[in-house]
Amino acid sequence: MEKIVFNIEPNSFATSAFLIGLILSQKLSLEEQDSIGNWLQLVGLTMQTYASQQITIDASKIDSKDKSNDGSDIEKLKKTIKDIEEELDKIYCDK
Fold first, then answer.
1. Which of 21, 55, 75, 83 is paired with 93 by a 20 to 30 Å CA distance?
2. DSSP H or E run through 66
């Protein structure tokens, strides 16, 4: 099922949700629609909250790795800036 659901083109995916919502609305009472609609929203919000928290945790792991580097990135940037300055000096001093 996983391969089927996640390979559907976005417009078809959204349209199928819309059509299912319309079909269910015609078959259910207002109270049932409200109940099922709230339940589906809760499922979606729970999934979003879970994913958001996992993204936050993953990002903090990346940030802590970046902070724990030995400063080599800064040294690389300084060297690159120096190289650029030297090239600019060559260009402007040769004129």
1. 75
2. helix 30-67
- pLDDT tens by residue, the chain, 95 residues: 568 888 899 999 999 999 999 999 999 999 999 999 999 999 999 999 999 999 999 998 887 766 665 677 888 999 999 999 999 988 888 65
The token duo for 36 is 């099922």
Using alpha carbons only, give the angle 87, 93, 95 rounded to the nearest 5 degrees: 115
d(CA 72, CA 65) in angstroms, rounded, equals 13
Cβ contact 33:24 at 8 Å: yes
Token look-up 């400063």 returns 71
Please state, in angstroms and as integers, the Cα–Cα distance from residue 15 to each residue in 5, 20, 22, 76, 89, following that order: 13, 9, 11, 50, 60
What is the domain partition of the chain in residue ranges? 2-93
Residue whose token pair is 């945790």: 57
